[in-house]
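From the pipeline queue, job 12 of 40. The input is one protein chain; the requested action is below.

Action: predict structure.
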Amino acid sequence: MTEPGLHEPCADVSALRSSAPRDGEPPSRAAVCETHTATLFFVGDRAYKLKKPVDLGFLDYTTVAARRAACEREIALNRRFAPDVYVGLGEFHSPDGESPEPLVVMRRMPEERRLSHLVRAGAVVDDVLRSIARQLAAWHAHAPRGRDVEEQGTRDALSARWEASFAQVRALTTDGPVAGCLTEIERLVRRYLAGRKRLFDTRIEQGQVVDGHGDLLAEDVFCLDDGPRILDCLEFDDHLRYVDGLDDAAFLAMDLEQLGAGEAAAYFLARYGEYSGDLAPPSLWHHYVAYRAFVRAKVSVIQARQGAPNAEAAARRLASMALRHLRTSAVGLILVGGLPGSGKSTLSGALADRLGVTLLSSDRMRKELAGIPADQSAAAGYGEGLYTPEWTARTYAALLDRAAALLSAGESVVLDATWTDAAQREAAMCVAERTSADLVALHCQVPGELSTARLSTRGPGISDAGPDIATAMAAEEPPWPEAVPVDTSGPLESAVTQALAAVRPWGSGQAPVFRRPYSEPA
């Protein structure tokens, strides 16, 4: 078995490009192109693809019957995406009476209309990417599903594919272009997958794992006047085509990014999310892009060992891309604490907005548990009413339960609470460990007179604490040495900058920002 994306270059690429037809014009001459599994002939407005009689382990085309079956399979599968391109099955007949040689007959596509060519030329391709996203989402909505398909979408199946790639790369090189970041890539992959079984199980339950394209590269998309044509789906191994729909889309996003079009990659995934209605967390988007980038890096390592020019640089670039996305995909639990009037809720909201993650508030949770509106006052004396130790313990337990569910589903979380109790902080640490999430604690600090002034002038809201409560809590506040102090006495942006410096990698801008697209225009 081999991974998708392993394409050998044509033997006569320059001839192929010079002879490709322009819209409305016949090609000027024929051309021949070879890959490791096929020979392609370009004549007039047709392309003919002959399977080579080779046995590569993951495929065996050594008999005419096997080559015929492979041609028929390629036509049937690719007609799902480009029915007017895959004309049908043809034959070559030899004069000596041997068995006819089967071949795939296709419409010849104009080389200058390849999506990869347009991206490299700096063309605006938003309309094309929107059409591709719509077409891919439409196929995924009705694609075959079943137990065999679902098995390839489990957390353990993805983990096995990662581990196989790790082993292959380590066997190929100890000091090559990927070696320097391989250890961190392995650590981040294993940490993400360890805590996300619930996420992958949910994806299967939602029917997100489908018989997809499996090899969606910009090189195989042609941008014609009447819409894009998506060619060359993965046909030699069904299991490699059974993927999460988001993984299928992430393949093209990865390819766009490695072509230098990171914004186009993010745009494409946003449009795919819109048309598919997929509620996947951005962490999963980044993880799948990282997976596809690492597979391509592995292929480049193989090609570098075979002496291919520029392959080592490509491997280094792709491995770095995988690492950026894995860092960005890391799931985190951010505790933002401090006394009343310290600005913790304001900072929590700004930080959650900046990072695009979920915000949970103890003030809201407390009133939700009590069955009262969040903005309804429940003011009471220190340690009384809804603020007894029992009510507070119940509130924090519910807060952490909800956070654990979100973390397991791949969502990073900001928890807005005072966090003055060491036992509650320990409980948060246990949740982070159980869900393989990175824990960061931020302690908002301001001079006492400033917090008093803020509380004295604060209007009605979710929090019920006043200056007297804050003073009583300050007298009992224990040290919090594990937390990063954040000075919230100045402008909000200053506090956000301090917080982001502590929250790595989520605030580092390591990879293109993938956000849920539903509020964005199509």
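Job complete. Residues 332-502 form a domain with the Rossmann fold fold (CATH 3.40.50.300).
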